[in-house]
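Translate sequence into structure tokens.
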Amino acid sequence: MEPHPYKRANGRLPHRRSIRLKGYDYSQPGAYFITICTQNRHHLFGKIVVGEMKLNDAGKMVESIWNDIAEYYHGIEIDAFQIMPNHIHGIVIITVGAGPRACPELGQPQGVDELGQPQGVAPTAAGLSLPDVVHRFKTMTTKRYIDGVKQKHWIRFDGKLWQRNYWEHIIRNDNEYNRITQYIRDNPSKWDNDQLNSKSGNIVMEMQSDYGIEPWMI
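Result follows.
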């Protein structure tokens, strides 16, 4: 077997201080494949049964928040998505003219809406960046999860619901899109060999994704 091209002589992957591309404008139009892991990779969203993901109530909440992203934010679209016991995979598409939508219908008297956007304001000219989208997704799911712990006795998490950062890949062409979409769809059936299930296989971007074995730093 050929050695991993990024490994040092001692066989360990180098510590990655950043996985963001320096100088890249993450608010510009494009498609992005993202993976977000729970803190310490705790299994909080359900379980795999015969190759299928069975969501618990927390998993259904996360799915609902993801599906709402495109409704709240003009210029942000969502594509393939999969919740796993301890992480999510999804494709976020930023289109021309991205910007948050006002959401007065949520019925909150003042302040911000449920995805962190100030209420009663017009869409901004400058669009949301990918980190903005991820941050708001994390913030809202964390808030809803805390409510579930208090009201429905969901599994408690340690300190934070999500790992501090996230893994991302810019989808550059149709071949990558097709391969990544298929990977997302097949993820539950390959859980038994998934790197995020403490195994060594099922890696979509073979030479790039150690999925943050060490904490990522922006």
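Note: The helical segments are 57-72, 130-152, 174-186.
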